[in-house]
From TrEMBL:
Family of the protein in this entry: Belongs to the short-chain dehydrogenases/reductases (SDR) family.
Protein name as it appears in the record: Ketoreductase (KR) domain-containing protein
SUPFAM superfamilies in the cross-refs: NAD(P)-binding Rossmann-fold domains
Annotated keywords: Oxidoreductase
Oxidoreductase is among the record's keywords: yes
Signal peptide bounds: none
MF terms (GO), sorted A to Z: oxidoreductase activity
Length: 235
């Protein structure tokens, strides 16, 4: 990325956030809803009249305090708080049962916001109790994939059907700021970053399962290639 490209992106014009009760009748589930961007998003969603907010978080007490304040501002706000640690496979695996126990059999919107960042200090790596290294992308890209597949049994009773966002009126769409950023300036030869950010999910871990499902009529086997351009797998 050149200096001028970097400076130019600082003035990107973004559309205004939607207003009004645009979530009326919708059930919204969010991970990492009690701090940072997740908290600000939660405040916004609370104003949009959702049918119910499901807050999946590691720390219950601060989330309960936040919810109490929000409900004082929005008396009709309905919400559930569920313990979920995306660095702990056990909490991921029991999530579907926990949701069903509470009568939550339909989820319209999923905000997969939670993330883990160990910092940039020069120190020995740390690991979860399941043996995963706690890398910056752990919760949203590694164990977070297991969360998506686990949650899919609540949404559809079967694993997610991965569909092209343009053609899919119903189904799962995985949206990330990295992909949005990459889409604005996709130039494979000038910048390898965009191709990596768009393809790494589909070419590693459980993303391979999704890739196989997507291209099952075109290819017999998908090998783990990361980084790389996903469309190259079907040549």
């Amino acid at each position: 990325m050149t200096l001028w490209t970097f400076l130019g992106r600082q003035w990107t014009i973004l559309p205004s956030a939607p207003r009004g009760p645009y979530l009326k009748g919708k059930v919204v589930l969010m991970t990492g809803a009690n701090s940072g961007i997740g908290l600000e998003s939660l405040k916004h969603f609370a104003r949009a009249s959702p049918s119910k907010l499901i807050l999946c978080v590691r720390s219950l007490q601060p989330t309960e305090e936040i919810l109490t304040k929000l409900q004082s501002l929005h008396p009709d706000l309905q919400a559930e708080i569920i313990h979920l640690d995306l660095c702990d496979l056990a909490t991921i695996k029991i999530l579907p049962d926990e949701l069903k126990k509470r009568g939550l059999n339909k989820i319209d919107v999923v905000i997969n916001n939670a993330g883990a960042h160990p910092g940039n200090a020069d120190k020995p790596p740390t690991f979860t109790k399941d043996g995963y290294e706690q890398t910056p992308g752990l919760a949203v890209t590694n164990l977070g994939r297991d969360f998506k597949f686990s949650l899919s049994f609540v949404l559809f009773g079967a694993p997610f059907l991965f569909l092209n966002a343009r053609s899919a009126e119903k189904g799962a769409r995985n949206v990330s700021s990295a992909v949005a950023q990459a889409d604005q300036s996709y130039d494979y030869w000038a910048e390898c970053g965009p191709s990596y950010s768009e393809s790494s999910w589909l070419t590693s871990g459980t993303g391979i399962k999704a890739t196989k499902a997507l291209y099952q009529e075109m290819i017999d086997e998908v090998e783990k290639i990361s980084p790389g351009v996903t469309k190259g797998l079907i040549v």
